[in-house]
Amino acid sequence: MSSAAPPDLTPLQRSIVHASASSPDASSATIASHVDSSASYVTEIQNEYAELIAHISDLSDLSYLPSFAHPYSIILPEPLIDEYQFEIGDVVELTFDVDGREETTFGMVAPFEDSMVGRSSPEMQARVYGSYFSLGDIQDEIPEFDQFDCVDENKAELSTSDDFLSYLHSLKRQLDTQINSGVQMLIGVGILEIIHGERDPNNLISSPYFILEKDRFPRYLANNGPELIDAHKYVGHIDEPDDVYFTYYGEDLQPSQIESLRETILDVKCFKSTWNYSIPGYRAAVGPTTTDPTGEVIRVTEESLHIVEGKERNVQFLEADGTPATGLTADRIHDAILDANPTFESLVSHTRYSGEADGFPLRRDGDQIFILFDQVTLVLTANGDHLSWVSPTGIDHVETIIEAVNGMIEGQLDVEDSRVQPADVQQPQRIQQDDWTFDTNSLYHDHTDDTPTSILNTIFSHRFFHDSTIHVPWAVLFEMNKHPDAGSATAATNEQGFENMSILSLLDTLDYLEIEVQTPPEEITVDLANGDVADMHVLAYSNQQDATLVTGDESLAELARLSDTPSFNIAQLDGLSSGVDDESSFEDIFKLIGSELVTHAEIVAEIDELLDTDTAAPIAESGTTSTMDANSVLESWVSNDGVLPYVRSTDSERCYAHSQSITLVPTKAVIEDLPQYLDSSDDFLTDEFLDPVADDVLSLAHSELPSVTLVVPAEYIVENSVSKSAPGDFSRKLLNISHAENVEYKTQPAVRAAASSSLQALLQNNVENGEDALLSWHDYVALCLTTALESAYLLLPDSNGETWKFTELLGVDTVTLSQNS
Nearest-CA neighbor of 476 among 550, 420, 544? Predict the structure, then answer.
């Protein structure tokens, strides 16, 4: 990186030169008004420095290298900063060719220093971190990395310190080669991300330094970024709004963490106003959001910056009788908003689709509707009987939008009223622990397995280890030294433990973390061969360091709980936090429900492996803690994710399965018999009823059972009402069924439902024939309701083969209790 000596310009001359370079067709008078000068002086400077103006009008000839550690900076050596008449903090406008499109973004000038690309620099740390999770894809881009093995498709397998050291050398050699090949500036990967215009939240590498789509990391590491086609100092107006908001979601930040987030944002300073930035180290923090229309670039100041919490709020729409409206699907809500024909003219300048006729930016994705205003995305989810908003709080502008959209939906649904209330969601707390004590088991085993594996997976998969101190008690080294002799660890396990100590030392030299090994005493006066004595030394040392103990020893974990020592089991880290946003172990457990995990006890035990109710445990992808318990996780799956509870008839055990919905209309005779299929507490339908329906009617997978919606003809209830003050036997049976937790109970008049059916008119004539009738009146009522409902089954008793008249003659789908006997 080198350049020629520049002329020494005054601030006004520099402004004229840059304005002339960026707008070569502008008149002297136009430039003069922009820089607050006279037209004649502008002309004088243009003539005197015509060659310089031509030179700095475009920096696109400068070669660049993507920087992972400085995601929102444009880093130039000081000679080039001088040559192109920049000052530190100037905003540069960059235009790239992205798949044939010209895309423009902005970044701030920062000075290059050799230490930025040193062996222990943040740039090297960022490259090590990202490449660890994407080695398989990197090998497609950089053949030198074929020498290293992969596990789990993309992750680097670096089991020994020699492997890791060789890996570090390869990354450093590649970085040096790129720097020495004539690269003239570094452009942050966060800037490059903006020009793509989208970010897949389910495919991210989320590191302490950058947040980037996983597919783009290998290309940028190989310096295969998009072509830079124009670059010059931005001479447009930079707005400084009175209020700029950044919102954090999904975690409860402590004051010190909010202050750290503020400092990170203020370091960036200038932002493209129409892009939702992700803040490294705070994946769930996004912004900026402003309350007034702005230009392309805004500057955030200490006074204008507000850090606010994003929360979920539920909205219910009420019918005339005060009951919540149901059937709220994403399709219905999306159509309701569109039918309201919103224009929001006063907000058009804030929308990403301000050029469209409707001026109201909606995007539908599954059960969610996204309302995309510049700098803020509002998420609306349909949940059947209510809607859920996820949005920033405390911003009047946003509240106006939400209230207006709720009003639109209310008007289109033709309901009486609506009510908004906070969702009952417990926000986990982000871990801010800086000191950790690792015991022997944690040095032997990866957090995902009991087999001896590299500690890199434990460290890199949990961002809270970055910049922390890991303490190793001398008693741990004693145990590792004696284990092979004592036969309590295999040679491979013991060898991996020492390799992991060496790997931690390399991470220390990389400045990724700090490792402190306790100095052994000159004389050991206790019998450390007694494991309990060694455990007590580990506990005492962890307490002395005010550290959190990470252990794979259940006995030691129990001692930690009894002695009130902060700790968690190494296995708790499995899937709870990762450098790549993939499925968590909770989802792995979820998939096994109904097949390998059936009973309540089995499922809760598996969830408890990931949660310690006495200790704050990390939450996926965020380095956070939660006090949720296993039962609440399971109940949330029952409430929201289609998991069905039932009782196993053979042993009355509470069990669970994935579900598929089925609608059944019972005849009166079935209602008389159906309570026998409830468990003893009348809380659940048992598998004695559900299994045959799953196998013979729905042909469900082994892990699935039917989730029953039982629609009872209202005529039955009226006919059997014997007292206004107390229910009769028939009504009590219906009440028992309606209270079952795994049955959705409904009633509906059958006659009204069938009023327009000519087939039902013919059947009515047949019913009137008395004993010779094809159907009884009760069966006729149930048949009317079944044919009126979409995809419903008629639920019949054991009818001695008489189902033919329903299935073959009338073409109605049936389920009989004989299938369930």
Answer: 550
DSSP-derived letter for residue 145 is G
The helix (run of H) or strand (run of E) holding residue 317 is strand 305-318
Looking at the DSSP bridge assignments, the partners of residue 567 are 549
How far CA 588 is from CA of 421, 582, 606, 607, 634, in Å, comes to: 32, 11, 10, 10, 13
Torsion angles phi and psi, residue 95, rounded to 5:
-125, 130
The count of other CB atoms within 10 Å of the CB of residue 400 is 13
Give the separation between CA 391 and CA 149, rounded to whole angstroms.
Answer: 43
For residue 820, the model assigns a pLDDT of 47
Task: Quote the tokens at residue 308.
Answer: 């606010």
In sequence order, which residues have a C-beta less than 8 Å from that of residue 249 and are 6 or more positions away? 284, 285, 286, 309, 310, 390
In this prediction, residue 801 carries a pLDDT of 66
Name beta bridge partners: 619. 624
The C-alpha atoms of residue 815 and residue 803 are separated, in whole angstroms, by 9
CA distances from 799 to 414, 663, 817 (A): 45, 20, 9
Closest by Cα among 423, 82, 507, 369 to 250: 423
Question: What number of other Cβ atoms are within 10 A of residue 602's Cβ?
Answer: 16
The whole-number pLDDT of residue 501 equals 92
Half-sphere exposure of 129 (CA within 13 A, CB side): 33
For 680, counting Cβ atoms within 10 Å of its Cβ (0-12 exposed, 13-18 middle, 19+ buried), the class is exposed
| Phi, psi (degrees; rounded to nearest 5) at 308 | -125, 160
Asked if 209 and 112 count as a contact pair (C-beta separation under 8 A), the reply is no
**Which of 653, 568, 581, 566 has its CA nearest to residue 608?**
568
What burial class does residue 53 get, using C-beta atoms within 10 Å of its C-beta: 0-12 exposed, 13-18 middle, 19+ buried? buried
d(CA 783, CA 795): 10
Contacts with 327 (C-beta within 8 Å, 6 or more apart), sequence order? 384
Beta bridge mates, 663: 709, 792
Q: What's the CA gap between 73 and 69, in Å, rounded?
A: 9
Listed as ranges, residues in the chain with pLDDT below 50 are: 1-3, 346-358, 486-487, 575-584, 612-628, 753-756, 758-759, 820-821
- Strand 435-438 and strand 469-472: the pairing is parallel
> Which token pair is 29?
């008078």
Return the exposure string of 485-498: e unless at least 16 CB atoms fall within 10 Å of the residue's CB, then b: eeeebeeebbbbbb
Region label for 366, one of left (φ > 0), alpha (ψ between -120 and 50) or beta (otherwise)? left
Q: Decide: 508 and 514 in contact? Cβ < 8 Å.
A: yes
CB of 380 closer than 8 Å to CB of 405:
yes
- Alpha-carbon gap, residue 264 to 164, rounded angstroms: 30
pLDDT of the residue at 557: 81
- Nearest CA to 335 out of 408, 389, 418 is that of 408
DSSP string over 78-136: HHHHHHTT--TT-EEEEEEEETTEEEEEEEEEEE--GGGGSTTSHHHHHHHHHHHT-HH
The answer, yes or no, to whether the previous bond of 288 is cis (omega within 30 of 0) is: yes
pLDDT of residue 769: 56
Residue 448's pLDDT is what? 55
3-class state of residue 324 by DSSP: strand
Residues 544-553 as b/e (b if ≥16 CB within 10 A, e otherwise) read: ebebbbbbbb
Residue 76 pairs in a beta bridge with 111
Cβ contact 106:273 at 8 Å: no
Element (DSSP H or E) covering residue 232? strand 227-233
Residue 192 backbone phi and psi in degrees, to 5: -65, -35
Cα 501 to Cα 491: distance, rounded to the nearest angstrom: 16
Residue pointed to by tokens 């013991």: 494
- Catalogue the E-assigned strands of 112-203: 150-151, 155-156, 185-188
